[in-house]
Design brief:
Structural class: mainly alpha
Length: 319
């Protein structure tokens, strides 16, 4: 029950911790780049040459920053389109769904918040998520199953939970973290494919081939380590925020038992088979254990995006 004590103060502290975690992503990129350069910067005797490593790092830094900047800008401005393509989400028709619009609008008016877009995924599963980086792109997406199954008070609790993610800037932080982790994922795929098919593009000399393969192996190994650390940072951003969004929704609706009841119905029925993207699955109000990060999702709580739904229900019932 202590999670609900001083909610606004907890949100403030969590936002500060989140910003610190976010700064770790660019530092992780720079650290990985330096590690690759340092491992590759050996003299003829195989010893590490710190001056050569630093010189190579500084000379390559502008290109790395440029490429990361381009990646970030493309993902930043096209994230809504990519999410819609991955989920098949469509705009929720107001005339046919006045119940949903009324619930959302009443909640937004109650806290002085601008109404986000509402979208729907045509799935029988019970799930929902919020997304967006700015007021123009903030969106709450609901499945057909959750709209048809929950009663008004339960659906209100779910919508309030998603509105809290927007209000607390959770969605913005999560999307930015996904963008950074995606950089390492891309590098891993590029390096792995280069090792498999690189012989077609390198020269005929054996030394050239060995040197190229060695550099690619270094890039692959360093990127895998950086990717794993990036996942830890990203998941650390997610878990506590679910408790805070639950608490905020309970405070907003003044009906914590309704959200607890909604989570109980969602439990075991949350798997949206239509959505294959693990990044999107992390944004859902419930992400079944083991569905995120592939094999990593089974090795412990460090790689879990959500706290146990049973614990969330228990805390709401104690509110």
């Amino acid at each position: 029950m202590s999670v609900y004590v001083g909610l606004q103060e907890q949100i403030k502290k969590n936002n500060i911790r989140s910003l610190l975690l976010l700064t770790s992503f660019p530092l992780l990129i720079l650290g990985a780049f330096y590690a690759i350069v340092a491992i590759s910067s050996r003299d003829l005797t195989g010893n590490f040459d710190s001056q050569t490593a630093l010189a190579n790092f500084l000379s390559g830094l502008p290109l790395v920053l440029f490429l990361v900047g381009i990646w970030f800008l493309i993902a930043y401005f096209s994230h809504s389109t990519m999410i819609n393509m991955a989920t098949g989400a469509q705009s929720l028709d107001r005339k046919e769904n006045m119940r949903v619009y009324n619930l959302a609008e009443n909640l937004c008016m109650g806290i002085g918040m601008k109404m986000p877009k509402l979208q729907i995924i045509e799935s029988d599963a019970l799930n929902a998520f919020a997304s967006g980086i700015s007021e123009k792109t903030f969106t709450v997406t609901l499945t057909r199953g959750i709209i048809d199954t929950l009663d008004d008070s339960e659906l209100e609790g779910v919508i309030a939970h998603e509105l809290m993610h927007i209000r607390n800037k959770d969605v913005r932080l999560l999307i930015i973290s996904i963008i950074f982790v995606g950089i390492f994922s891309f590098i891993i795929q590029f390096a792995f494919r280069s090792l498999l098919y690189g012989s077609m593009f390198r020269g005929n000399r054996k030394d050239d081939k060995d040197n190229g393969a060695g550099i690619m192996m270094i890039i692959l190994l360093v990127s895998i380590v950086a990717y794993a650390l990036g996942l830890l940072f990203k998941f650390a951003l997610s878990r506590k925020r679910e408790y805070l969004a639950d608490a905020g929704a309970a405070q907003m609706t003044k009906n914590p038992l309704a959200l607890a009841s909604a989570l109980r119905k969602i439990s075991g029925n949350a798997d949206v088979n239509e959505v294959k993207s693990e990044d999107i699955q992390e944004m859902f109000i419930e992400n079944p254990p083991g569905s995120t990060a592939g094999l990593l999702g089974n090795i412990g709580s460090l790689f879990s995006t959500h706290p146990p739904i049973e614990k969330r229900i228990e805390l709401l019932e104690q509110f």
